[in-house]
Structures are given as C-alpha cells and as structure tokens.
Amino acid sequence: MSLFEMAKIPMEKASKLINLDPNAEAVISQPERTLEVSIPVKMDDGHVEVFTGYRSQNSTVLGPAKGGVRYHQNVSMDEVKTLGFWMTTKCAIAGLPYGGGKGGIIVDPRKVSKTELEKITRGYIDKIAPVIGEKKDIPAPDVNTNAQIMAWMCDEFSKINCQFAPGFITGKAICMGGSQGRTSATGRGVITATLELLKREGIKPEDATLAIQGFGNVGSWTAKCAADKGLKIVALSDISGGIYDANGFDPYKVEEYAKNNGGVIKGYPGATPISNEEVLEQDVTVLIPAALELQITAKNADKIKAKMIVEAANGPTDAEADVILEKRGIPVVPDVLANGGGVTVSYFEWVQNLYRYFWTEEEVIDRQEQMMVKAFGNVYDAAKKYNTTMRVGAYIVALNALVEPLKLRGII
Ligand SMILES: NC(=O)C1=CN([C@@H]2O[C@H](COP(=O)(O)OP(=O)(O)OC[C@H]3O[C@@H](n4cnc5c(N)ncnc54)[C@H](OP(=O)(O)O)[C@@H]3O)[C@@H](O)[C@H]2O)C=CC1
Ligand SMILES: O=C(O)CCC(=O)C(=O)O
C-alpha cells in the first residue's frame, strides 16, 4: 500500500461514522493539482546535475493551498501528495482559511555546497512560480529547510514578480517579514497538545516523563517548551542515536552541546547512550516522535511502553501500528492536530504580511494557545462522541469543515 493510500484510512473510517456524502470523500481523496519539475544546476565542479522537485496542491476548498517544502533524498510524489493531504486536514482542524499542499526536492542537503543549495532552491521556485502565490499556494519550511532557504525562495519569487512578495511564503526570518514565534511554534503547539491530554488523563505535568525522537526544529523546540513547562525529558535522539538520563535533560544545554559537536547529540556528557529504537520503547508517560514518518510500525508497536503518544512528526505511525495501539488502549494525539501549531503561526505570519503590521511574541503565543486548545477540544470531543480514536476524531472535524463549502461551491 502506498503512503497516500494508507493516509486515507482514518478519513474513510471517519467518513463512515458521519455518513459523509461519498462525493465529498471522492473529491477530498485526490489532490487538485500535482506538479513535477526538473531543476538543472551547474554544480561547483562545472558538471550539470538535474534535480527533481514536486508540489502537490491537495485542496483549495477552504482557501489557498498551504504547506512546507521538504529537502530529502527520499522525497517522492507519493510522499508529497500524502503530506499535502495531511495539510488539508490540519488546516481544517485548526480552523485556518487554507487548503493544503506540500512540496519537496530529492536532495540530501548535506551532500551539496551552500552555493549549490541556493541554486537548487532558486531553480525550484522558477519552475513552480506559475502555481504559487500569496492567494494561490503558500510554501513554508519542513524537514531540512529553514529561514535561509525561505529567504532565497522569497527573493527569487519577488524577482520573478518584480515586487517584494513576503506573503507568498512563511517561516521567514523576522528581518524578511517573518513572525515572532514561528520557529518555536510547532514544538510549542506539541506541548500545548501534550498538556491538554495529560489534563484529560488526570496526570499532573510534574509527574510526567517524556521521550522525544528527533532533535531538529520540531524536536528541539518541543523539548525546550516541555522543559519551560516543567516536564521532565528522559530520552532524546537524532540521526546519530539516542541518549537517556533518568534525572532529566536540560534541552537548552543539549542544544548547545550539539552546536559544538558537529550538530549531533551523541556523546552528551553524563547520559547513557541508547539506540533510536530504544528511544521509542522507553517506559515514559509520553512518547513524542518528532523526526520522520513510519517510525512506529507493526514491528515495534507492541513494544511501546509509553502511556500515550503525541505525534509531532507527520505520519510517524503506520496503519497497522495504529490498530495495535488502539487495541492496547494507548491514546494517540494525531499529527494533524498535534503539530498544527506550525501552520497556525504561519497563518499569523501571512496575515501580518498582508496588512504589513506586526504583532508581539506575546500576542502570537497567546493566539496560538487559544487556537490549539480549541482544536484539541473539538477533536477530543468528536472522538468521544463517536467512540473512536483521536485520529479518526480529527478527520471527523476536518470533513465536517470541508463538506459544506464543497456543496455551496457546487463541487458536489
Ligand atoms: N518545521 C515545521 O514547522 C513542521 C514540521 N513538521 C514535521 O515534523 C517533523 C520534523 O520536522 P523538522 O523538525 O522541521 O525537520 P528537521 O530537518 O529540522 O529535523 C528532523 C530531525 O529528525 C532527525 N532524524 C531524521 N531521521 C531520524 C531517525 N531515523 N531517528 C531519529 N532522528 C531522526 C534529524 O536528525 P539529523 O539532523 O541529525 O539528520 C533531525 O534532528 C517532520 O515530520 C515534519 O514534516 C510538522 C509540522 C511543522
Ligand atoms: O507552516 C506551514 O505552512 C506548513 C508547515 C508544515 O509543512 C506542516 O505542518 O507539515
């Protein structure tokens, strides 16, 4: 089964539970538009390499398509379509006036120079420029993309359109028209979702322990926001492996250590080295996968000892594992809810760009918190009402938001 087919399973379950018009499911099940582009780049040594890029616009029913751009050697059209589908669901749950989209380039950014990376980035924007724009489709960061890459994209798109176009992209540096609080937003939202679940499960935050897989933008900010709220993090990991300390980590110190250690957390003083698999299998209150998709599968779902899972990454749990976790009674806050803080603050950034007036960090954090708490409550209540998982509950909320505009627009 492709990733895209797998991703649609909870939507199909939700659709049955609410007796959704089958026409709505048929429309939502396919991206509106997909684009594959070739990006020829003259590399530093003079030879030309042709990179492949994608953009999938899953839906524009609720507003312009919205979603990040991923740079990774395993990017594929199937992955980009799936991530775009999750964006549609995520934006609908968060109550944003956006549809969903996603992009990606097949490249391992560690294997190209900074100059080559800039050329690849500009070449990608040149090729997808006709279909993107502040009222059409608004890209943002994802795995291995950051504020520097957003700045190159913004500059290239501005040149093509002969005008400064900050509203066409989010996740920018503050000096490029970015928003306060965007870099930390996804991790902060993950912790808001974690605290909401702990509250409903009757567990005090000070009694909870966390294991976090991944220490990039999302993982490191999840860890820092957790520590700021007094939660104890006992296990962390990145691509180099995992570290464990029963007394808890100070993620700010781990980050500082990684900066001076080739960007990896391996060898953190005083910590016990563990494998990436072991991080997922720690006996903790909350497991937070914050790396890539398909980390919790039929192979390890039975070995998970966490009392609950909050998905910071997109798609970390596969369909078989989802069934196993449900049978084992382990609640899972799904990706489309838990990591919605990132796109929520991207929305704030876009709004600020459109009217060229900027908010304080306190305003951003406060509004994000209110929207996350509301979205969590809607999903949790839908799951309870239909006696199902929070993942299916999330799709119930999203489908209910999408079906009426589909009818009113005359699409179904
Ligand atoms: N950035 C955002 O705003 C949002 C991101 N997401 C999702 O969150 C997830 C992480 O994204 P983001 O933090 O931005 O990406 P980054 O590229 O910043 O970080 C990814 C992290 O995962 C680590 N990693 C990769 N493979 C493994 C592995 N097998 N085991 C453990 N760690 C691993 C990487 O290690 P190393 O650096 O050493 O390679 C890195 O620490 C993705 O699923 C993304 O789609 C969701 C919502 C918003
Ligand atoms: O900030 C955004 O617009 C999108 C972030 C993203 O790609 C995601 O939520 O997966």
TrEMBL record:
Q: Which residues bind NAD(+)?
A: 186, 217
SUPFAM superfamilies, from UniProt? Aminoacid dehydrogenase-like, N-terminal domain, NAD(P)-binding Rossmann-fold domains
Q: Where is the active site?
A: 102
The Glutamate/phenylalanine/leucine/valine/L-tryptophan dehydrogenase C-terminal domain covers which part of the protein?
A: 179-410
Going by the UniProt record, its keywords in alphabetical order are: NAD, Nucleotide-binding, Oxidoreductase
A GO BP entry: L-glutamate catabolic process
GO MF annotations in UniProt: glutamate dehydrogenase (NAD+) activity; nucleotide binding
Family membership noted in the UniProt record: Belongs to the Glu/Leu/Phe/Val dehydrogenases family.
Which PANTHER family does this UniProt record tie to the protein?
Answer: GLUTAMATE DEHYDROGENASE, GLUTAMATE DEHYDROGENASE 1, MITOCHONDRIAL
Name it.
Glutamate dehydrogenase
